[in-house]
Amino acid sequence: RGLGCSARSAREDSWLKSLFVRKVDPRKDAHSNLLAKRETSSLYKLQFHNVKPECLEAYNKLCQEVLPKIHEEKHYPCALVGTWNTWYGEQDQAVHLWRYEGGYPALNEVMSKLRQNKEFTEFRKERGNMLLSRKNQLLLEFSFWNEPVPRDGPNIYELRSYQLRPGTMIEWGNYWARAIRFRQDSNEAVGGFFSQIGQLYMVHHLWAYKDLQTREDIRNAAWHKPGWDELVYYTVPLIQEMESRIMIPLKISPLQ
Predict the structure, then answer these.
(1) Rounded to an integer, what distance in angstroms lies between the CA atom of residue 252 and that of residue 47?
(2) 40-247 belongs to CATH 3.30.70.100
(3) Residue 76 falls in which region: left (phi positive, over 0), alpha (psi -120 to 50) or beta
(4) C or N: which end of the chain has fewer Cβ atoms within 10 Å?
(5) Cα 112 vs. chain centroid, distance in angstroms?
(6) According to the model, what pLDDT value does residue 30 have?
């Protein structure tokens, strides 16, 4: 009996250590340099706009009139990756994802030019009257994730956002560099990003599905692949908070 209790205690102790003691190679560089794509220098901006419920239709119409002009203007080194309304999650919310080719200098160039653009200035003023709140983050791409490229629809999109424990970004990247291979069979993986400015230690995974049932089927299928359960087991303790948004693209979104 004593040996049985001792063995059980050892297993429990080992399980607890797996949660709190994880071996990670010593950091010798910023995690942005270790985890981001090296072949590109793109910077991403993720915007969340909480719209007054009675203004959502007018907000969408205004965005569909103005945003393509910025996206298509060759003198602005930026591109609209996707624009959505949240369907399930926080209601009356718009989400926009922009790419700046050339990193921070490109961002500064675009912002400087837009300040001189009277149409955009009027757009921001009119848009501001429709909003309850807004926030944004500047992001980099994970090197092991798909490049977000335009796709045909119709699709629904899931934005899964993870607030990680400070100091765990490298470890998250190490695990997900393997985990992403389990989630690419059905072409559902759109893009993976981590924050540089705004709320820090934030990770965003963007997925595309035909519908909610397809999402359920694909996610359930992952659990039948050897190794997926282990990767989930070791990444869950790295998370402080997580959120899932199901989003519907606007007509102007390159991601349909």
Answers:
(1) 16
(2) yes
(3) beta
(4) N
(5) 26
(6) 57
Listing DSSP states for 190-213 in one string gives EEEEEEEESSSSEEEEEEEESSHH
Task: Give tens-digit pLDDT for 95-114.
Answer: 999 999 889 999 999 999 99
- The pLDDT value recorded for residue 197 is 96
Question: Mean of the pLDDT values across residues 155-164?
Answer: 98
Q: Which residue has the tokens 């039948």?
A: 224
CA distance 173 to 194: 10
Number of residues assigned to the chain: 256
C-alpha to C-alpha distance for 184 and 126, rounded to whole angstroms: 41
Q: What is the pTM of this model?
A: 0.86
- What are the residue ranges of helices labelled H in 116-247? 118-128, 169-179, 212-222, 228-235
